[in-house]
Known about the structure:
Elements: E1 7-12, H1 17-27, E2 33-39, H2 44-54, E3 58-61, H3 64-76, E4 82-85, H4 87-94, E5 101-104, H5 112-120, E6 124-127, H6 130-147, E7 150-153, H7 156-164, H8 172-175, E8 176-183, H9 201-205, H10 214-222, H11 224-236, E9 244-248, E10 254-260, E11 265-269, H12 275-283, H13 316-324, H14 329-345, H15 353-364, H16 375-396
Parallel strand pairs: 1-2, 1-5, 2-3, 3-4, 5-6, 6-7, 8-9
Antiparallel strand pairs: 8-10, 10-11
Helix pairs in contact: 1-12, 2-3, 4-5, 5-6, 6-11, 6-14, 10-14, 11-13, 13-14, 14-15, 14-16, 15-16
The protein binds nicotinamide-adenine-dinucleotide and magnesium ion (MG).
The site of magnesium ion has 4 residues, from α7.
Amino acid sequence: SASIQRQRVCVLGSTGSIGTNTLDVIARHPERYDVFALSAMSRVDELFAQVMRWQPRYALMPDAAAARQLRDKLRDEGSRTEVLDGAQALADIAAHPEVDSVMAAIVGAAGLAPCLAAARAGKRLMLANKEALVVGGALFMQAVQQGGAMLLPIDSEHSAIFQCLPEDRSAWAQRIDHILLTSSGGPFRTRDPATMREVTPEMACAHPNFVMGRKISVDSATMMNKALEVIEARWLFDLKPEQVRVLIHPQQIVHSMVVCRDNSVLAQLGTPDMRVPIAYGLSFPERIESGAEALDFHALGGLSFEPPDHARYPGLALSWAAMAAPEGSTAVLNAANEVAVAAFLERQIRFDQIHQLNEQTLAAVHPEAGDTHSLEGLLALDQRARAHAQQLARGLAP
Ligand code: NAD
Ligand code: MG
């Protein structure tokens, strides 16, 4: 109808799992959304196909050689899309005056700069890229507030919490006693912990319920994904670390819960399909068709819940350790984990050594005063932590 305000959307990380699911939802609502920009790190052919389908104003590739390939292919087709390269282009386009909404679906700290740019420019910022908030912390939240941005969580747990809370944020603190982030427990929930050292990248990336990027798949297996989500929730909902708790729920039907002051518990349920939180991010405060199947309560077996076993998932406790340590320590933990996961995927370290590397880097790299006051300071801290973790990884390599 004429009352619908069209949104021009910039999708950062459009070739990934969240990126392609975002375009799937957008395709269902051509009357609502225009794709203004698409971006990817590699996979030129996939980005090329997306550009041909969506004809965005811009296509962004941080890597100049990849951008050149894409530009050549598009020129042959007579495409009018302009290809930009360099990391700065991501931040520039995320803050472009004609952009209404930014889907932040890049993986890792690399997404922080464009997220900050979108926040400062007051965009609707749909955040899948949890690492950006784990690294950015208070600076990120300040940018959202000062820029007047609308920060919408895309992580399914955080979207669930958000959906259980009133639209008026000033009522949140009064209402919440604590939140329960649910976790599937990953692919090794019942595996003998003594055999974790034999886990291969293929085993870790075979997630029981749906296909995700390789980094988050490994993080789900170690529970570092939940550790990052605890920190993410702390910032999104302005909670104390002890107000964020974790519960294993293998069926992934309850996406997370809010326990209120009066012990009333609010939960958000649905089939595990990322298009639901994505659609909510795109349409909030309205609701639109997402493509997800309705939950069939008759076919549903039981729902079960259990406390996390910290011996099986030692990484989980690092979340609270990093939040209790000097500000910036969560950025150190994130950097260590990015290096550890990459080293594991490259078969340089074993699965169980991911935790060893994270723990030792967190203990060894200390943020300095001022590191967390600017993007440059945070990125320098991130680099210091990466260098330390890389050195440890080389020492562990067989
Ligand atoms: P993915 O690996 O499938 O996709 C990542 C995308 O980012 C790709 O388009 C890639 O080209 C791009 N990219 C990677 N590194 C980049 C860099 N340095 N600079 C610019 N672009 C880069 O990952 P994903 O599973 O879609 O996850 C994306 C983010 O969403 C992650 O932070 C993840 O934790 C979060 N998330 C994912 C899911 C899921 O179901 N996949 C659920 C919740 C949250
Ligand atoms: Mg999640």
